[in-house]
Amino acid sequence: MSVLVEKFKEGYSLLFDRNWPLWVGGILLALLGIICMAAGRPWGVAGGLRVWSDWLFYWIGLYPTAPGYAFFLSNTSILTWGLLFGAFGAALLSRQFAWRNAPRWELGKGLVGGVFMGVGSVMAGGCNVGGFYTALAAGSVSGFAMMAGLLVGALIGLKYLMWEIEHIDMKPPKQKASKEGGIEWPKVQPWLGALFFLFLVGWAYCLSFRAYTQEAVLMLAAVGIGIVIQRCRFCFVRSFRDPFMTGEAVATRAVALSVILSVFGFFAIKWFRTDWQMIYIYHHWIGGLVGGVIFGIGMLLAGGCGSGSVWRAGEGQFKLILAVITFSMSNSLFKNYVWTRDVASSWGKPIFLPMVTDYFWAIVITAVVMLVWWAIMAWNEETDSLTIV
Amino acid sequence: MAEWTADEILDARGLSCPMPILKTKKIMKKLSPGQILEIQGTDPGTRNDLPAFTERSGDEFLGEEQKDGYISFYVKKG
To answer: To which H or E segment does residue B74 belong?
Structure first.
């Protein structure tokens, strides 16, 4: 028996003490993303965030009509809830959940960064998951545009951060002294986490009974994404920012690998389901580029992108909770503005890459772009030629 | 008692990714070889990011110490 307990502890420590390597995250995210696609709704984050504020603004009377999708059980919303739940549960299991306050200036950056991301993601048709990562996997040409925009935005944002270090003095927030006695949270957290996951699985099972099977599958996949992303500290921001900051390209490699893997899965599904071909294909070509720049600046200010802000919020980081809130609100307001004035039609046409080339060359083109990105950043890792800090 | 004596202290408590690393990189440039920087932080990401950073920069990651409400990381300029 004691051997079993020992082995369990070893396994637990491997999964929840140490972080998983980023490339493992890249592979798992690709798999889970393909599952979401197969369930009819590819992974995105911004769409779910928007649903929350759409309802909020309807409830307070700002929007005249109710949103056409449920607050909780619409398939965009459930993906973002799942991400938040998964990250929260994984943070508990790894004893990493804590209420983390930040200096005032940082909180302000969270608020402003969230607004930038909200606006940018409307223009690009999604955050860097929906507008770049999933869009590329789905064969939307707008994904390349957003990628270019994100690189530019990340550079601008990093320039600002360097300016800020020189010019802004920040005081650390007041820390509460740890109390003597009371509950020992580090010991309780894993149990709470395990209970929470049991509850989620049971709930998904109940949902499937009430004919919400698609939503249940999406929620579990998103919970999986949340766990993976928290345990790897997988961060799309890093893939764009780190090469310019520390020169490190670990995150870049993981994201490039993940996109290449996803393309195969997504295209296989779209090949067989021709009626699904235009899923996740945006008309935002110019929008992708401009939105990418705006979003890129925002994610540098906030220190997390769409997914990154949500999972860090699930970990208890106050700055990122604020970023998620303003992201959600500004996305809803700006989208509402864009829809009612029909501005978006000037942002480009939707192009499904395999329709222009064919499936084979679409895969080759996407993979080559990813490999070139990978190669440039690997070269920079050795030479630091692009590093500006 | 601290195992290492710091020549310089960076208070990064409350800051989240990427600020602790960015500030560390900036300060490390000013130190001379052999000097030790103590980074006080609360972001769980720093645990991975700092050793990864020193590995690339040629500095030495000495270790960490759990303090009351934060962690102190020690880095020696290489």
So the answer is: strand B71-76
